[in-house]
Design a protein that fits this description.
Elements (H helix, E strand, L loop, with lengths): L1 H28 L3 H23 L4 H28 L4 H12 L7 H8 L4 H26 L6 H9 L2 H14 L6 H26 L9 H25 L3 H10 L6 H9 L4 H29 L2
Helix pairs in contact: 1-5, 1-9, 1-13, 2-6, 2-8, 2-9, 3-4, 3-10, 4-6, 4-10, 4-12, 4-13, 5-6, 6-7, 6-11, 6-12, 10-11, 10-13, 11-13, 12-13
Length: 308
């Protein structure tokens, strides 16, 4: 119980305090959210990715284990969401929104700050979360995108979006620097470290601002099912996959914790862009984000008990 309370006080509470700051400040000053989003996507997120991959000692075996887990885990989530959609006989647009809201998790703006706090003394845990965030971005711009638009959409546009992801460029650059043992001069690396330290606060304040004006008119059965899928079924599936693959230690903790993150705002944006029940997707984002205060705390607690 002491571990649970410690996680709640030292990890979750600081996070939600910053999210609350974002809500309050945005309601008072009406931020330009696109500016915050660009700051995160094109600068802070790539800097965090580069710094942690550059510093972390990740073996080929670890990378293989993480990639294998992600493939199996995401296929099971997609299969489960499709099965539930068919069971309840959702129409095509509603099925698309349900699947995206249930499968796509907020691994960047929410997941990376969580991992930064949980694995503050262990760079490996954060590096694994960065790999997961990159995988989620790719999943969003492939399966998530095609799930929202017609089958006639050209694939070139999707591939171009993936290749333009700044976090992917940062990953490749960090790997090249490690491969050729390139040492970065202190006058350059110092600002990188300072910028990386700013990521957690900016990401969480931005997340708070993003949900500040989302209104939940009603909580339908679909919203409840999708939220339960994202916050409860997803961690259960993640845990079973981890155990079946024999993964343990920090890697297992990072993977298990990442499976519990709330719904990705990208699911809401895709639903809004293609008019696929956007109010449902927005409701799931808000409910899972707020509820994760408790559910993510429990998963972090369990991860330290099951994978010490």
């Amino acid at each position: 119980m002491s571990i649970f309370i410690d996680v709640l006080i030292n990890v979750i509470s600081p996070m939600f305090l910053l999210i609350l700051v974002g809500v309050v400040l945005h309601r008072k000053f009406n931020f330009n959210l696109q500016t915050f989003s660009n700051l995160l996507i094109y600068f802070l997120l790539p800097v965090v990715c580069f710094k942690n991959i550059y510093e972390a000692d990740i073996s080929k075996e670890t990378i293989s284990s993480v990639l294998l887990y992600l493939v199996i885990f995401n296929l099971l989530l997609i299969g489960g969401s499709i099965a539930i959609s068919r069971f309840y006989n959702f129409d095509k647009k509603l099925s698309s929104t349900f699947q995206n809201s249930s499968v796509l998790s907020n691994s960047a703006n929410f997941g990376l700050p969580v991992s930064s706090l949980v694995f503050a003394a262990n760079p490996l845990g954060l590096s694994i979360q960065i790999m997961i965030a990159i995988a989620q971005n790719i999943l969003t711009y492939t399966w998530g995108f095609y799930n929202s638009v017609s089958a006639s959409t050209k694939g070139k546009g999707v591939i171009k979006k993936i290749l333009k992801l700044p976090i992917l460029h940062a990953l490749v650059l960090a790997l090249l620097f490690r491969l050729f043992n390139i040492t970065i001069p202190k006058p350059i690396y110092g600002p990188l470290e300072t910028s990386a330290d700013a990521f957690v606060a900016v990401a969480l304040i931005t997340l708070g601002a993003q949900i500040a004006y989302i209104h939940i008119r009603s909580i339908s059965k679909l919203v409840i099912i999708s939220s339960l899928f994202r916050l409860i079924l997803s961690p259960v599936i993640g845990l079973l996959v981890i155990l079946s693959l024999g993964i343990d230690g920090t890697i297992a903790q990072a993977l298990f914790i990442s499976s519990s993150f709330p719904s990705n705002r990208s699911a809401s944006l895709l639903a809004l862009e293609y008019n696929n029940y956007p109010e449902v997707a927005s409701s799931v984002v808000v409910i899972t984000t707020l509820s994760s205060c408790f559910t993510v705390t429990i998963v972090i607690y369990l991860s330290q008990l099951v994978f010490p």
